[in-house]
Specification:
- By secondary structure, the protein is an alpha+beta fold.
- It is 27% helix and 26% strand.
- The strands form 3 sheets. A 6-stranded mixed β-sheet has the order 3-4-2-1-14-13. Strands 5-6-7-8-12-9 form a 6-stranded mixed β-sheet. The chain has a two-stranded antiparallel ribbon with strand order 10-11.
- The structure holds one DNA strand of 15 nucleotides.
Length: 256
DNA sequence: ATGGTGGCCCGGCCA
């Protein structure tokens, strides 16, 4: 089972690239973020013609998450399943051929002294509760998406440039650590301990070509899934060429 | 590097 996560930064703007990428890579399950459209505008028929069932949780011009699957798509759950529902469309869950998958778009945080950063931390606490409510550590679960957190210093191009910024702060990294403590593993980092592996590069300043990136898009998996993962990769090619997203897809191939 | 870009949609906000 080939599982991917990709923040497409507007599915309307990115649909040609997304279609070409699906035809090229043929993932079985895709966790998508930042579709930036309503459910009505979501191109479910286009994906159906390509062999994918889909589920979308959108709100309009911002946020929006989706799951595509050509291995079945059942038990779709939009938003958090416990506690207060989030006011923004940032999380959707479904079951695909025996694996529960979650597509998450964690709030950016904007700045450490911004209210949005507190929202980010609360959101991550809610995510931990959501995960505990839908699965057990011994089950088959993948929680993938744009976490807007670089798990460790190795996941950023320059720690000095990011001092005092979101994405690297102790409080948000602790929230990620709580997910690890529960039983979710960062399989790509386990398989690739080397530095310089990023999934996002700012559009500005030629960041991609200068290697100024961060690894903030993650596929976290329970041990059943992590142990069965044959390979993982980040598809940097998807960040090149005409009208790319500022994020590259992250992939994991799970033996079934 | 804190915008020189690129989304939203047409003046800024957001990432």
């Amino acid at each position: 089972m080939l599982i991917a996560t990709w923040n497409v930064n507007s599915l309307k703007a990115r649909l040609p690239r997304v279609q070409a990428w699906l035809e090229d890579v043929h993932p079985d399950v895709v966790l998508m973020q930042e579709t930036k459209m309503t459910d009505k505008a979501f191109p479910a028929l286009t994906f159906k013609e390509m062999g994918y069932e889909s589920a979308h949780f959108g709100q309009g011009q911002w946020n929006g998450v989706a799951i595509l699957s050509r291995l079945g798509l059942d038990n779709v759950r939009a938003n958090f399943v416990v506690g207060e529902p989030d006011g923004e469309a940032r999380i959707i869950t479904a079951d695909c051929s025996g694996v529960t998958v979650v597509s998450v778009y964690v709030p950016n945080g904007r700045a450490l002294d911004h209210e949005h950063y507190q929202y980010k931390l609360r959101w991550l606490d809610q995510l931990a509760k959501h995960v505990a409510a839908i699965a057990t550590p011994s089950g088959n679960l993948v929680v993938g998406g744009d976490y807007n957190i670089a798990p460790a210093d190795i996941d950023v191009w320059d720690t000095k440039a990011l001092e005092g910024s979101t994405h690297v702060s102790a409080a948000e990294r602790e929230r990620l650590e709580a997910l690890h403590d529960w039983g979710l593993r960062d399989v790509l980092r386990e398989q690739h301990p080397e530095p310089g592996i990023y999934s996002w590069w700012d559009y500005r300043n030629g960041s991609f070509h200068r290697g100024w990136g961060m690894r903030i898009d993650l596929l976290l998996a329970t041990s059943n899934i992590a142990d069965a993962t044959m390979w993982t990769a980040i598809d940097r090619n998807a960040r090149k060429g005409e009208q790319p997203s500022d994020h590259a897809p992250v992939l994991m191939e799970v033996s079934t």
